[in-house]
Amino acid sequence: MRASSYFTEDERRLLPTLAGQLAAACNGCVSHDDYRKMKRTLVKAAVIGTMPRNAFGMNPIITSLQTALIVASEIRNDREAIIAILLHNLVRHGYYETSAVASDFGEDVATIISGLIKTNDVYQKSPVIESDNFRDLLMSFASDMRVILIMIADRVNIMRQIRDTANVADREKVANEAKCLYAPLAHKLGLYKLKTELEDLSVKYLYHDIYYHIKDKLSQTKAARDKYIAKFIEPVEQRLEQSGLKFHIKGRTKSIHSIWNKMKKQNVEFEGIYDLFAIRIILDSSPEDEKKDCWIAYSIVTDMYPPNPKRLRDWLSVPKSNGYESLHITVMGPEGKWVEVQIRTERMDAIAERGVAAHWRYKGVKSDNEMDSWLTTIREALENNDAADNDELLDQFKVNLYKDDVFIFTPKGDLVRMPKGSTLLDFAFSIHTNVGSHCIGGKVNGKVVPIRHRLSNGDQVEVMTSPTQQPKQDWLSVAVTSRAKAKIRQVLKEKENKQADFAREALQRKFKNRKTDIDAGQLSKLILMLGYKNETTFYQAIGDGQLDANLVVDRYVEMSHKQSDTTADDLSKSAGSFDLHQPVQPSSKGGDDILLIDKDLKGLDYRLAKCCNPIYGDEIFAYTTSGAGIKIHRADCPNAKELRERFGYRILKAKWNGATGGSHFDITLKVVGHDNIGIVTNMTSVINKEPDTVLRSISISSNDGMFSGMMTISVKDKKNLESLTKKLKSIKGVMQIDRG
User: Fold this and answer.
1) Residue 388's pLDDT is what?
2) 156 membership: H or E segment, kind and range
3) Theoretical Cys-Cys bridge with 127: which of 45, 77, 134, 376, CB 3.0 to 4.6 Å?
4) Rounded-to-integer distance, Cα 335 and Cα 594, Å
């Protein structure tokens, strides 16, 4: 087999072009010897031709070249990262051993490839269910930041290539991940250009009509916008030239994603957005004159156009944690329009365009202190075994990515960086676990404040402690940072364990005093009868004083002396307590499952969501909750859109399997019509005659000759429901029937 047979005609034409562009972008960072060894291995893999394409049919060799080109030209031309991108698929599919990579190209390349393979593997599974894999994945992120940079570049590449794909479902999944995870990652690393592209493409794929509506509006207003920008810039250029500054000015239109966010936030149409563009003044200054020149330019602009003091953003004095430096001001331009002006130097602009990677330092050299601190926070959250489950961990991770930072001064004048929105309690735990655990309040700028006080940029903070203070459960709602939450959970769990052990010993003493032996099975039954899910919560209740140990012993003795028939009567449900409206749930265990979840998995616990009450035959999907297991929703559930947008990583495929197996499903119908005599009797008569259908409850109210009502009905499947609905609509007086 020839290597060319592995490529399509278009791919064969594209291959030499990509290779040439990559070589030019690398600018000598990858040696000829490296290229020769990689080419030999890639050709062997292409000859065998068994490396699989992805869900969109993309060739892995072509995709690797495209991703490497993005890294080299738009992020950083780093030898190890580029080689790792080109070879990681070969290692993953067994064409190349990791040890051979380390020998041929160095340990760093092998380490990056290991991180990329973990990334690929975890996305073949669910990061919510496979929690250990997800934890390992994030740990690999923290071990070498180039793994994150490559992941971002790969996602940008995929988003660029899938415009015309027929695989719409996977495209939406990829777009959701790009919006929720990769764009904020790019933002945190200062890769603003790639972050904007990911956001705009996610809007394009998820909200097609909105994207092209805004794009068309921008095209229609381009001429007027360009004319206004020129009118704004002309006098500014003259004054800057007179001051002797070297500079150039750019005008840029805001991204489609940014415009759409403003439309939603301000609840206006496109025409209601006035700050559609920004002016960027880029100065050619020596390192020692950078700040001075920026403030001179600021003075010139604000002398000409009145500034909005509330919109000044000074990232010159205190740069962002990702290295971003710039002055942002909003001024009133001609015709009374607000214009955003950004002032920075050439060096600052390079960092703004290429992010942390523009001045990144790798292993073996002292790394950037700002980024080290960020990585330490992630590692601490990941390495703490008592932290929240991984759903919550991902949510915290995403929250921290979206937040800006505030800088806090200690009483000694040291500067501490905290996420925006941090409380005094977060600051206390950032100092030490013991300080946080015993915190009773503090002083901010000399004023006494409680632990929930939110800190602002430039605050001077002193923590006050007491040896009698202990963490409480409600502290979890006070803390913002993942570090503080993890430490609070750790201390609370240790306290609960001690309390439960003490309660267990106390209960055992009570039984011993009553000369009663404890049967584990009998005690477990009693725990369930008392309303506790497990022994831990049971003993915690005794330790908290919510449950009297003497009462437990009395109930246990009472149970032990009852006859078996009496016990059966006690445990069975009486007819008087039967709930007519209790929802029917199909079994999710044993026998033949009527549902297949994810990749045709059986035997998983699930519940039908009450917000949409899916029934057999509905189009459905599965949603993995953070504490209530798997919920099954209808595809047209009112909450489906928000779940897919905010928690796309928790969505699993689901489908009905075979017959219902005798299961019935409760649904609610809302009925509206004319209040004719006997109409309720007619409806109930139709329902009772329908096979496999049971009327569980009905509630009707009338007003001004009209009636409306709710009916809870048990049906076998969607076909059963459609037949019933059709017959109900045929009843004279029934105007409308909607499913709840």
Assistant:
1) 42
2) helix 146-161
3) 134
4) 66
How crowded is the C-beta side of 598, counted as CA atoms within 13 Å? 20
Exposed, middle or buried, 416 (CB in 10 Å: 0-12/13-18/19+)?
middle
User: pLDDT by residue (tens digit) across 668-698?
Assistant: 889 988 887 778 888 888 888 888 888 888 8
pLDDT digits (tens, 9 = 90+) for 247-286: 999 888 888 999 998 888 888 888 878 778 889 999 999 9
HSE, side-chain direction, 13 A CA sphere, residue 279: 27
Nearest Cα to 629, choosing from 119, 212, 129? Answer: 129
Pairing of strands 630-634, 606-608: parallel
Q: How far apart are the C-alpha atoms of 424 and 459, rounded to whole Å?
A: 11
281 forms beta bridges with 249, 343
* Exposure string over 83-102, b if 16+ CB within 10 A, otherwise e: bbbbbbbbbbeebbeeeebe
In CATH, what is the architecture of 665-739? 2-Layer Sandwich (3.30)
Return the SS3 of 445: coil
Q: Give yes or no for a contact between 60 and 88, defined as CB atoms under 8 angstroms apart.
A: no
Q: Which residues pair with 252 in a beta bridge?
A: 278
Alpha carbon distance 679, 698 (integer Å) = 13
CA distance 313 to 320: 11
Q: What is the DSSP letter of 451?
A: T
Spatial neighbors of 631 by CB under 8 A, at least 6 apart, are: 606, 607, 608, 609, 622, 623, 625
DSSP per residue, 122-150: HTTS-TTT-HHHHHHHHHHHHH-THHHHH
Q: Two tokens at 290?
A: 């950078």
Say whether pTM exceeds 0.85.
no
- Look at the chain and count its residues: 740
Domain boundaries, the chain: 3-206, 215-359, 403-475, 490-572, 595-656, 665-739
DSSP element (H, E) containing 447 = strand 447-449
What is the end-to-end Cα distance of the chain in Å, rounded?
60
> Whose CA is closest to 109, among 118, 100, 120, 122?
100
| Neighbour count for residue 266 (Cβ, 10 Å) | 10
Question: Hunting for tokens 């929105």 — which residue is that?
Answer: 421
The label of the residue with tokens 């800190």 reads 455
CATH topology of domain 403-475: Ubiquitin-like (UB roll) (3.10.20)
CATH 3.20.20.70 fits 215-359, yes or no: no
Conformation bin of residue 677: beta by default, left when phi > 0, alpha when psi is -120 to 50? beta
Q: Judging by beta carbons within 10 Å of its beta carbon (0-12, 13-18, 19+), is residue 580 exposed, middle or buried?
A: exposed
Condensed to tens digits (0 to 9), the pLDDT of residues 704-735 reads 778 888 888 888 888 888 888 988 888 888 88
CB atoms within 10 A of CB 461: 21
Single-letter code of the amino acid located at 39: K
Contact status, residue 185 vs residue 148, Cβ threshold 8 Å: yes
What is the rounded distance in angstroms from the CA atom of residue 552 to the CA atom of residue 536? 15
Low-confidence ranges of the chain (pLDDT < 70): 1-4, 121-143, 321-322, 354-404, 413, 544, 561-593, 599-604, 626-628, 658-662
507: left (phi over 0), alpha (psi -120 to 50) or beta: alpha
Report residue 371 as tokens. Answer: 């980024």
pLDDT at 582: 42
The residue type at 294 = C
Q: Please report where in the chains the tokens 């477990």 appear, as a residue.
A: 524
Distances (CA, A) of 717 to 278, 594, 597, 727: 57, 12, 19, 16
Beta strand 630-634 pairing with 620-624:
antiparallel
Check whether domain 3-206 has CATH 1.10.3210.10, yes or no: yes
User: Which amino acid appears at position 668 of this protein?
Assistant: T
